[in-house]
Structure formats: structure tokens, C-alpha cells
């Protein structure tokens, strides 16, 4: 990612994440929601690792690069980001989650995707 992340930063607004993705489509963006939530709608280019699987699949995340986690409203992604920050990874949570992303009229995949209810 060419945009430097402040080492004290713990979360990112959807607008900033969209800008980063435009600059670096390979940015690590991880959806920690449940599979049914993912199927309803997600951020294009993001990967899916449900929160309950994150500890067993943590090796799939590159520790040398920043990672942004997101969920429905931000609570689960904040837990994920805190755990990875404790392990020395530059991890952020998307503030407001996918609800905020969608409310700001940002696109969801697949076409016509929606934010699933809990």
C-alpha cells in the first residue's frame, strides 16, 4: 500500500479504505462475517475468513503487510484487529462495517449485493 498507515491508527473509514483499494487492489482486506453474510454481499477483492476460524487460519494473512478487517458494523472486525495488533501485525478495522460502507453508496459484490441481517 503506497499510503502510509499511522502506527497508532486502529481503524479506517470506508472512504479511506476505498481510496487505498483504488491505489492497491492487492491490499489485504478480510471479511470476518459468517458465510451467509458474505454470500449476501461483500467488498470486491476482499477475502473471507469467518471470525471463528481466524485463529486457525491466521497463517493465511501476510504479517509484513497491513491488513484491514471488516464485518457488519465493526465489533467483530475490531476484535480481529486487536488480536492481530497484539501479535505485532499492522491491523485495522473498518469503522462502521459493511453497513456504513453500503450506506455511503459504495458497491457490494455480487452485483445487487446487500448487507445481511444478523
Short description:
The chain is of the alpha/beta class.
What does this structure look like?
This protein has helices at 14-23, 35-40, 54-57, 75-86, 97-103; strands at residues 11-12, 28-31, 47-48, 67-70, 91-94. It is of the alpha/beta class. The chain has a single domain (11-103), classed as Rhodanese-like domain (Oxidized Rhodanese, domain 1, 3-Layer(aba) Sandwich). A five-stranded parallel β-sheet has the order 1-5-4-2-3. The longest helix is centred in the C-terminal third of the chain and has 12 residues, at 75-86. It is globular and about 35 Å long. The model has no long low-confidence stretch (mean pLDDT 93).
Strand order of the largest sheet: 1-5-4-2-3
State the end-to-end distance: 32 Å
- H/E order of the elements? EHEHEHEHEH
The helix content is: 25-40%
CATH homologous superfamily classification: Rhodanese-like domain
Mean pLDDT: 93
Largest sheet: 5 strands, parallel
What portion of the residues fall into strands of 2 or more residues? 5-15%
Counted by DSSP, the helix tally is 5
Shape: globular
Number of DSSP strands? 5
Structural class: alpha/beta
Compute the gyration radius: what is it? 13 Å
The overall number of domains is 1
CATH topology (fold) name: Oxidized Rhodanese, domain 1
Low-confidence stretches: none
Shape-level CATH architecture = 3-Layer(aba) Sandwich
The CATH class assignment is: Alpha Beta
